[in-house]
């Protein structure tokens, strides 16, 4: 094992794993402040990305840490009561798989599973850009698609697939995801107008208290956020690439999901 042992005080640490279409990474998280107790460890997602192959890789990631306790795992799809329902970026055989049942024998503690955007949103709301914010926080990641997470008074409302709202006859993310900027050869202002149209539609439906913007495009806010005209205040995400790991660990420790 390359990672140093980590403390196991009751409720102070949990293991988080972020499963993605290209990589699977994990770390032990200090739940008092959301920091990693040791450097994260990553392995490539196997090809094909079948349940058994990915479960074996998850075991290898977890085995890199000397930790026994609650384990949270994210998945790039809808997860309810531990069961995967969508799997756009991994093998289609994942649909209907009980992720908790599959991973429990391979991880060093009770397993909690949740959507990857939900985990990132939970981390941002608790430790990151939304720390201390009351009311409804909406975390939105602009990337290949649009990921969304709803957190109300610090509590996650899971599986909010609001990137797929119909807008002007289209799936919103097909027009306003960051990938659409390059695909449609848009300049920053043109793309920002699309994002603004989506955001104003969203805020008229749910009236949030704060937007938090994440995804790769959040690294260049000076290029586009000044074009937004939302009434909802917004900030840029703070947890970067550790958000999924941290949110998964937090969800597992609090035992609020399947």
Explained architecture:
The chain folds into two domains: 13-120 and 241-254, Nucleotidyltransferase, domain 5 (2-Layer Sandwich), CATH 3.30.420.40; 132-238, ATPase, nucleotide binding domain (Nucleotidyltransferase, domain 5, 2-Layer Sandwich). Strands 1, 2, 3, 4, 5 and 8 form a six-stranded mixed β-sheet that branches. The chain is α/β, with parallel strands linked by helices and 258 residues long. The two termini are 29 Å apart. It has seven helices and 15 strands. Residues 1-10 have low confidence and may be disordered. Helix 3 crosses helix 7. The chain has helices at 51-62, 99-103, 116-126, 172-176, 178-183, 188-206, 243-254, and strands at residues 13-19, 23-30, 35-36, 41-44, 71-75, 79-80, 83-84, 111-115, 136-142, 146-152, 155-157, 166-167, 170-171, 210-214, 234-236. Strand 2 and strand 3 (35-36) form a beta hairpin.
List the helices and strands and how they pair.
Elements: E1 13-19, E2 23-30, E3 35-36, E4 41-44, H1 51-62, E5 71-75, E6 79-80, E7 83-84, H2 99-103, E8 111-115, H3 116-126, E9 136-142, E10 146-152, E11 155-157, E12 166-167, E13 170-171, H4 172-176, H5 178-183, H6 188-206, E14 210-214, E15 234-236, H7 243-254
Parallel strand pairs: 1-5, 5-8, 9-14, 14-15
Antiparallel strand pairs: 1-2, 2-3, 2-4, 6-7, 9-10, 10-11, 12-13
Helix pairs in contact: 3-7
